Amino acid sequence: MPKDFLTLADWSAEDLFRLLDRARELKQLLNRGQRPQSLEGRALAMFFEKPSLRTHVTFEAGMAQLGGHAILLRPEQVGIGTREAPGDVARNLSRWVDGIVARTFSHELIEELARVATIPVINGLTDLLHPCQVMADFQTIAEHVELKDAVIAYVGDGNNMANSLMLGAGVLGLTLRLGTPASHRPAVRIRRCAEELAAASGARLSWCEDPREAVRGATFVYTDTWTSMGQESEREARRRLFAEYQVNAALLEHAPEAWVMHCLPAHRGEEITDEILDGERSLALDQAENRLHAQKAVLERLLT
Ligand code: CP
Ligand code: NVA
After folding, report:
1. Which of 63, 90, 105, 280 is a Cys-bridge partner for 116, taking CB atoms 3.0 to 4.6 Å apart?
2. pLDDT (tens digit, 9 = 90+) per residue, 267-276?
3. In sequence order, which residues have a C-beta less than 8 Å from that of residue 106 and are 6 or more positions away?
4. CA 130 to ligand 2 center in whole angstroms
5. Does the C-beta of 123 come closer than 6 Å to ligand 2?
6. Ligand 2 pocket, 160 CB below 6 A?
């Protein structure tokens, strides 16, 4: 088992299915008011370079529910790369706490933290990947259909969510169709990695430019913001570029049976309409809820 949870590509299908089983179990336990104290006395440092609602709250609440404790570190407090070198931050944290969750702009920074730290490092989102979100998403899909039967269509920007969905589908052998502009397909190195994983797992990964073709007959239609954190200056250009990828009633006529997914936060009226996000086909809040359970499973696995 890997020390860290940086990318789903490092994990085996068997390990990820075990985590998803435990996440389902932890959800059932919590719904019955039971909070196993499996991380009693453990501490988690949470370093966030970007804003967060879901990731911050679910890791902190998750640690508390498991009997542990979480400490939020703001970048201005720590001064990674200015006050102190990343490696020194990782070495010090390794002497005090049992794990680190980091949300960084650069994926290379989290890789460096993980390389130096002697404790597990969990990716709470980088510009490249968001693996914890995908675990919650797969847990959510599995609440409706067998994962292997899901036809997941992701439309919009080939960003960190698209990258992680590709890798997760690649490991687990799932069906994922991407509909993005040719200029905004997932990163080439991620595509190559996902294709290698798919060759071994039997995953069916495909891409097309037309969002209608991507969602046709899908059982889950997934989208994410067109303007990720750090890209705010490009927002107007991106609104124009991605306009035809909006998840709205017209697009969903091509996927009449599909559930709709969004990792949140949503830019309402851009990548998704209010009507669809708030409608009965939307699983967005279930996905948000499952962040708690999926991450508790990851924490238990890495910190004990
Ligand atoms: N989906 C997600 O990661 O939300 P936050 O950015 O609020 O953590
Ligand atoms: N792609 C988005 C995901 C937010 C959870 C971002 O990086 O801002």
Report:
1. 90
2. 999 999 999 9
3. 126, 127
4. 8
5. no
6. yes
Atom of ligand 1 nearest to the CA of 124: 3
Instruction: State whether the beta carbon of 54 lies less than 6 angstroms from ligand 1.
Output: yes
* Residues 235 and 227: beta-carbon distance below 8 Å: yes
Q: Which CATH architecture has domain 145-282?
A: 3-Layer(aba) Sandwich (3.40)
Mean pLDDT confidence for 112-135: 98
Q: Outline where the chain has alpha helix (H).
A: 13-31, 54-65, 75-78, 86-96, 107-116, 131-142, 160-172, 188-201, 211-215, 235-241, 249-252, 274-277, 284-303
Closest residue (by CA) to atom 6 of ligand 1? 52
Domain 8-130+291-303 superfamily per CATH: Aspartate/ornithine carbamoyltransferase (3.40.50.1370)
The answer to whether the predicted template modeling score (pTM) of the entire model surpasses 0.90 is yes
Q: 98 and 303 in contact (C-beta within 8 Å)? A: yes
Kindly state if the Cβ of 132 falls inside 6 Å of ligand 2: no
Q: What residue ranges do the domains of the chain occupy? A: 8-130+291-303, 145-282
